[in-house]
């Protein structure tokens, strides 16, 4: 009976201490999922069609970027972002804004609208 008590006590101590030691190594939790809307303006051009073309090319460029490149290009500044998991949500689109410059000429500026999904460490 004494041997059985020692074995039960030893195994419970081992199981408890293993869980206590292993817990700080777990880093999978404490992240909040965020989606931000970002707008990127492209340089002004002389025609509306050219602006749409440049905007579509830029949108394709963003869609091909890795998570780290997206963080750098879109300047996502926040505490504890998981940079490797940043990605674009579906629904990115291009709009064109017409404006008059100081010389009285019409210019067209493409605006690329993106929804960026990233995980941020919860600091609470």
Residues in helices, as a percent range: 25-40%
Strand content: 25-35%
Principal-axes geometry comes out as rod-shaped
Radius of gyration of CA atoms, rounded to a whole number: 26 Å
Given as residue ranges, the uncertain stretches (5+ residues, pLDDT < 50) are 22-27
Q: What are the secondary-structure elements, in order, as H or E?
A: HEHHEEE
CATH class division: Alpha Beta
CATH architectural grouping: 2-Layer Sandwich
Keywords: Signal
Protein name: DUF3316 domain-containing protein
Signal peptide: 1-22
What does this molecule look like?
Residues 1-22 form the signal peptide. This is DUF3316 domain-containing protein. Keywords: Signal. Pfam families: DUF3316. With 124 residues, the protein is of the alpha+beta class. The chain has one domain (30-121): Alpha-Beta Plaits, CATH 3.30.70. It is 36% helix and 30% strand. It is built from three helices and four strands. The chain has helices at 2-22, 48-63, 67-74; strands at 31-41, 87-88, 93-100, 106-121. Strands 1, 2, 3 and 4 form a four-stranded antiparallel β-sheet that branches. A hairpin with a 5-residue loop joins strand 3 and strand 4. The longest helix has 21 residues, at 2-22. The radius of gyration is 26 Å and the shape is rod-shaped. Mean pLDDT is 82; it is low at 22-27.
Which SSEs are present, and which pair or pack?
Blueprint: H1 2-22, E1 31-41, H2 48-63, H3 67-74, E2 87-88, E3 93-100, E4 106-121
Antiparallel strand pairs: 1-4, 2-4, 3-4
């Amino acid at each position: 009976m004494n041997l059985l008590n020692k074995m039960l006590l030893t195994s419970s101590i081992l199981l408890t201490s293993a869980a206590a030691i292993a817990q700080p190594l777990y880093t999978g939790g404490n992240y909040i999922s965020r989606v931000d809307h970002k707008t990127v303006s492209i340089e002004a051009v002389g025609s509306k069609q050219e602006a749409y073309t440049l905007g579509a090319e830029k949108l394709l460029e963003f869609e091909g970027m890795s998570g780290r490149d997206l963080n750098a290009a879109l300047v996502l500044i926040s505490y504890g972002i998981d940079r490797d998991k940043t990605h674009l949500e579906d629904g990115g689109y291009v709009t064109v804004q017409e404006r008059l410059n100081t010389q009285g000429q019409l210019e067209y500026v493409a605006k690329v609208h993106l929804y960026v999904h990233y995980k941020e460490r919860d600091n609470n």
